Amino acid sequence: MLGFSPNLFWERRKTVFSKLDETVLVLTSGSIRNKSRDTEIPFRPDSDFFYLTGVCEPDSVAVLRPNGSDGDLILFIPSRDLDKERWTGQRMGLEGFKEEYGAVAVYGRHQLEEYFPSLITNTDKIHFRIGSDQRVQDLIFASLKATRLYKPRGEKGLQGVLDPGCILDEMRLFKDDEELDRIRRATQITSESFCEMLKYCSPGTGEWELAAALEFGFRKRGASGTAYPTIVGSGSNSCVLHYSDNSRRMEAGDLVLVDGGAEVDLYAGDITRTFPVSGSFTPPQKAVYEVVQRAHRSAIDEVAPGAVLDSIHRVAVSQLVEGLLDLGVLEGSAEEIIDKRAYKKFFPHQTSHWLGLDVHDVGDYFVGDQSRTLQPGMVLTVEPGLYFPRLSEDVEEFCGIGIRIEDDVVVTEEGSELLGLSLPVSTGDVESLLEDQK
């Protein structure tokens, strides 16, 4: 359970049971994938599966059925293989899973065909993510076919499949204290590792070396690794939003954009900073950076309970457009530029996304046709940026500049909590930090 309180998962399941009515929820943990031949990619359980069970075992299945005022959790877990455990380590037996995770029954995965079909009878709908587990999916589709062909009149039978997100996305959007503790730790580890990484930020250093230094900092401070592939983009690579080759050697005068996040107990941090490789910003770099910084600060100030999510983006866009006008990059009225979205050439992404078990976490951004209203317990990023991969000759001085500033913010009862505070933002503080790390 990665140190989480066992009762936490039971309380979450109670909430799910209250929403299931007479339907059944089936979740799968995912399988170990091979990089090549017998070399395995490190396993991470499906986020929804872990959220309701706390189980980190591959090839597992969880069935949640309402039963009176409470409900039943039934697990299917791969049986122990003592020969394999010599290579991969000792595993818990089926009885151990039943006691540890509060299941009413635990079967071997090899018993799916024997027991699973009976668990999804007496219901007309099942919550299951299509494509998540072929073996389970085949059993569900067989039940659907049997209902269509053989269901007696007056009896229930499976008639439809719903996505588990219908129930779980809204639950996962609101973080409890134990989740917030992990996210705070992930962002603090990320922030401290960014600062330490900068001792290697200099001309001639490879992007891959900065990535390695950052990720070493994560592991040294207790994170399990990265929450997503680290981005280290120098020079024109800083304008590639999800650049991850990290294969260029940095040069004097470059900016380098670093986007990274530690993972703590499966929860993500997500921070971006942009640094001058030579230690100080050139005038054009500073001018663009300060525009992004103002947008970053204004957007963070907008985060509060009752605020509309889209207002954070609108505030950031307004500041960026004003800055692009001041820089001479755009011409005309700010209102017309925003209305026609002419700024998207330089700021093509949204300002925020949800953060949690996944770096781009679940949760609707609109409710109906209205932008989501922020409430306490939500965690989101604020990440405005400006990118100039190709420009006309009259603004050639900005060509190759890509700047993004990203932080993680918790919506609180009083307003908001900015995470990862040890990492500076202003140009002067960034330059001072670079100098201190040399």
Written account of the structure:
This protein has 438 residues and is an alpha+beta fold. The protein is built from 13 helices and 21 strands.
By DSSP (H or I, 4+ residues per run), the number of helices equals 13
* Alpha-beta classification: alpha+beta
Low-confidence stretches: none
* Radius of gyration, CA atoms, in whole angstroms: 25 Å
* Number of DSSP strand runs: 21
Strand content: 15-25%
> How far from one another are the termini?
41 Å
Estimate percent helicity: 25-40%
Spatial arrangement of strands, main beta sheet:
6-5-4-1-7-8
Overall shape: it is globular
Mean pLDDT: 95
Give a short account of the largest sheet: 6 strands, mixed
Kindly list the characteristics that best describe this protein.
globular; 37% helix; 438 residues; alpha+beta; six-stranded mixed sheet; 21 strands; three-stranded antiparallel sheet
Task: Describe the structure concisely for a colleague.
It contains 13 helices and 21 strands. It has 438 residues and is of the alpha+beta class. Strand 15 (366-367) and strand 16 (370-371) form a beta hairpin.
Explain the layout of strands and helices.
Elements: H1 6-20, E1 24-28, E2 34-36, E3 39-40, H2 47-53, E4 61-67, E5 70-77, H3 82-88, H4 94-101, E6 105-108, H5 112-119, E7 125-127, H6 134-150, E8 160-162, H7 165-173, H8 177-197, H9 207-220, E9 225-226, E10 231-234, E11 255-260, E12 262-264, E13 267-268, E14 271-276, H10 283-302, H11 309-326, H12 334-340, E15 366-367, E16 370-371, E17 379-382, E18 385-387, E19 402-404, E20 407-411, E21 416-418, H13 427-437
Helix pairs in contact: 5-6, 8-9, 10-11
